[in-house]
Specification:
Largest sheet: 10 strands, mixed
Shape: globular
Number of domains: 2
Number of helices: 9
Strand content: 15-25%
CATH class of the largest domain: Alpha Beta
Radius of gyration: 19 Å
Helix content: 25-40%
Distance between the termini: 50 Å
Number of strands: 10
CATH superfamily of the largest domain: Periplasmic binding protein-like II
CATH topology of the largest domain: D-Maltodextrin-Binding Protein, domain 2
Structural class: alpha/beta
Amino acid sequence: MKVGLLGALMLLWCQLVQGAPVRIAVGEWPPYVSAKLPQQGFLCELVKEAFKEVGVEASFHFFPWQRSYKLTLAGEYQATMPWFRSAEREQAFYFSQPLGRFTTRLFALADRPLPELGALRGYRVGGTRSYYYGEKFASLQPELEMEWSMSDEQTLGKLLLGRTDVMVMDEQVVAFLLKAKGVPREKLRAHPDPVWSQEGVLLIPRQLPNAKDMVMRFNLGLRRLQESGRFDRYWQPYP
């Protein structure tokens, strides 16, 4: 192990032992995580409350998503979230208990056709660059007429303007953006069958001293939120 990395890891461990806040690297993904939102997004609030239950403070530091991941992997931050389980990530990180289930669906204007996932050929499909929509959608992409945007706001805007026929997006993000734009939810309809649905987790580097203890403490705090009913208050079901 390089001396610089070892020093960074020991510093993080000392900070944890001394009661300093757990430093969590994140990116922008409202309403889950955002420097512009109250409590930095509802998922940041949930994670902060889970740590608080076990006497640990948490602070959030914003970077592009891949940089957040790499900084945590390098030991410069103690955790990053939310991410999804994979064999590759499991080699480098411990996974927390689930922070919640993230569900992606197909959406269309309420007065327009909303096809099945396997029947999208011939439709203009909106999506946001750099997002992963699951294996099934990825396998269909070469056959689809995709209209890519640089942000979820742009993807939704194109659907509302009729520039696309269907869009694929996380349901919580859709609800947040519609509310922010003052657009009634009834303007859109969502397909009942998810395109992709996975549980997101907090990642803690395996190389971090006392990492197992940190995961156990966080999971205990998360369980306390669940048992008290407070956990469910953060996750509002999409109608």
